[in-house]
Amino acid sequence: MEALLISVPYVSNAFICLQAASVNIIVGSHVWVEDPVLAWIDGKVIRINGQEVHVRTATGKMVVKEIPKVFPKDTEAPPGGVDDMTKLSYLHEPGVLQNLATRYELNEIYTYTGNILIAINPFQRLPHLYDSHMMEQYRGAALGELSPHVFAVADVAYRAMINEGKSNSILVSGESGAGKTETTKMLMRYLAYLGGRSGVEGRTVEQQVLESNPVLEAFGNAKTIRNNNSRSVIVMELF
Ligand SMILES: Nc1ncnc2c1ncn2[C@@H]1O[C@H](COP(=O)(O)OP(=O)(O)OP(=O)(O)O)[C@@H](O)[C@H]1O
User: Fold this and answer.
1) ipTM > 0.90?
2) Which of 93, 108, 177, 234 could connect to 227 by a Cys-Cys bridge, CB 3.0–4.6 Å?
3) Myosin motor domain spans which residues (predicted)?
């Protein structure tokens, strides 16, 4: 699962703090433990011996972990996950990953954590997510009013720039192949759409901005082992 973070630093400050396992773990607790194959696996506490916790995992295996390595599982989490991870009862690594994986299964590739957007690369075209109807919907909508989306982040950044009269930035960050370049194209498309439709030579501003992208990629991108069209860090400046 490859993920990227998209944030608008100048709208407000958001700090994410991954919660440590401070909740009491007792016999019968539903928990997450690390797994060499699946990364994390859920299970139930069968016995506690001092610092040692004996857990029966969902695959029926018995494992023994130290208390700090055992994380509580929210058994009342909605089956389809939550669209903003600040709503999670436990904001720890297995909780966050489980939520993202659940949403990804439902083709929900975007999830908020406060005003930061997390995108999971779908590795398939999802045209319904980016069509002109979607752009119309997100125009002027407050962050969180509609489903998490890259257009919502662009809209907030654009509105903050217009209303406060200050330049703004959108930071797109993630490992190689996570989808930064594709996301930036969507951001450019949406910002060009917001910026107006008057164009020269019969072409809209949106078309002209998007047509400039292959030229920028020709200078800024390179083929790597992970990605045929690789670009390093991307910061979009709006001014
Ligand atoms: N939102 C998306 N919808 C469909 N496919 C996507 C999306 N995001 C990424 N992809 C797929 O993943 C591939 C890699 O994405 P992209 O080039 O944007 O990654 P990157 O983070 O910019 O990588 P690098 O850091 O190497 O430049 C794309 O060529 C595309 O096939």
Assistant:
1) yes
2) 177
3) 80-239
